[in-house]
Amino acid sequence: MAFTLLGLALENATGKPYEEVISSTIFEPLGMHRSSLEKPKDSDGIIPAVDNAWKYVAGVYAPTGGIYMTASDLSIFHRAIMSHQLLDVATTNVWLKPRSYSSSISFTYGMPWEILRTDQILTDSDRGITLFTKSGGLEGYTSQFIHIPEYELGLTILVAGESRALNWLREKVIPPLIRGVEQITRDQTDERYAGTYKTPNVDDLNSSVVLEVQIEDGRCHGLVLTSWVSNGTDFLLEYSGLATGVRDLDRGKAQLVPSNVNRDKYHEAWMLDFLSSKVLTEPSAVADTCLINDVDTLMYGDRSLQEFLFISDVNGDINSVELPAFRVTLRKESMSKVEEYDGDQGIYKEL
Questions:
Q1: Looking at residue 179, what is its pLDDT?
Q2: CA distance readout (Å), 136 to 68, 139, 163
Q3: Span 177-207, pLDDT tens digits
Q4: What is the per-residue pLDDT across 266-325, written as a single tens digit (0 to 9) for each?
Q5: Potential cystine with 34: which of 70, 241, 254, 325 (Cβ 3.0-4.6 Å)?
Q6: Percent of the chain beyond pLDDT 90?
Q7: How many DSSP H helices and E strands does the chain contain?
Q8: Strands 100-101 and 141-148
Q9: What residues have CB less than 8 Å from 286, skipping those under 6 apart?
């Protein structure tokens, strides 16, 4: 009923039929030439050998699911969402948010999303994966549109026939796909960001950080800060105390996570987060069932102690990291190019 009313509201606001509104604002601009509210020729469709709604005429109910569309056109639509062709970045981010809860802690409702969050896909990590889905169907047809923003992945499953085939296909495709992309992501992170970063002249300032994609006892902890020396002081130990109240590195991992808010095309902003080990000292305490982690809570000189700015050269390769709170830029040891530092742009340039 809600989508039917929305369609009528669109017609009233624009003075145009719903089909014309959708065609002029979505199908035509995106080049979705095999999408229509009119039934295509039988020879162009997949008509299952079960009772089906191939000849269903939606009429006023078209906004609830009356569009004939191919998987390739849905892929075009999905790419448009991810590349912000239809909505700007801020609006898209608001759109991809839960609006209400369900009886399950792993399932929430969006507009119009059915949002699933699970920690059962990655076998070596407890990190949750969020799937924004939109399901639909008529007699003999079932579909699901799946958006996984963490990896910028999208899937479309269209089934003509038994609806249970959709669940079977989803389970066969999504877990191995995400695990494969996760491994590629880790490899790329290790190659691009991991390494030792030091001040160019240790006689003037002995500061350094060591980053690695850390896997211990079969568990992946992401991009971890394994050493942090600030002017000769073991600051990683001090940071553990600032983050937890106890100077003890065994209490967790100092993990870097991307903020997705960059200063410019050369500076990638990441935030340091101390992930505490999950030790239930009081199993009955509500807070002990969750690990609540905050970033950007520790400040020095009006700058966050947890902000790390990875700096790339004109070729896009990471060659240094800036720690704004410490007013220091550390050079990546593995860089073999001969470069000089451009203070105006805050980057190293190849000579």
A1: 95
A2: 12, 10, 11
A3: 999 999 999 999 999 999 999 998 766 788 9
A4: 899 999 988 777 544 455 566 555 655 566 678 888 888 899 999 999 888 999 999 999
A5: 70
A6: 56
A7: 7, 19
A8: unpaired
A9: none
| Phi/psi of residue 94, nearest 5 degrees | -70, -40
Burial class (CB in 10 A: 0-12, 13-18, 19+), 3: middle
Check residue 351 and give its pLDDT: 44
Its pTM stands at 0.81
Chain centroid to CA 141: how far?
Answer: 30
From 177, 136, 134, 176, select the one nearest 159 (Cα to Cα): 136
Contacts of 291 (CB under 8 A, 6+ apart): 275, 276, 278
The pLDDT of 144-153, averaged and rounded, is 92
Q: What share of residues in the chain are helix, strand, coil (percent, to 5)?
A: 30, 30, 40
Q: What does each C-alpha distance from 269 to 98, 199, 265, 303, 313 come to in angstroms? A: 26, 19, 11, 13, 15
User: DSSP class of residue 105?
Assistant: T
SS3 of 272-339? EEEEECCCCCCCCCHHHHCCCCCCCCCEECCEECCEEEEEECCCCCEEEEEEHHHCEEEEECCCCCCE
Looking at the chain, list the stretches that DSSP marks H as alpha helix, in order from N- to C-terminal side.
Answer: 2-14, 18-22, 28-30, 71-82, 89-95, 164-192, 235-244
Distances (CA, A) of 342 to 80, 82, 116, 150, 307: 37, 34, 46, 34, 21
> Residue written as tokens 């849905």?
74
Q: How many CA atoms lie within 13 A of 37 on its CB side?
A: 21
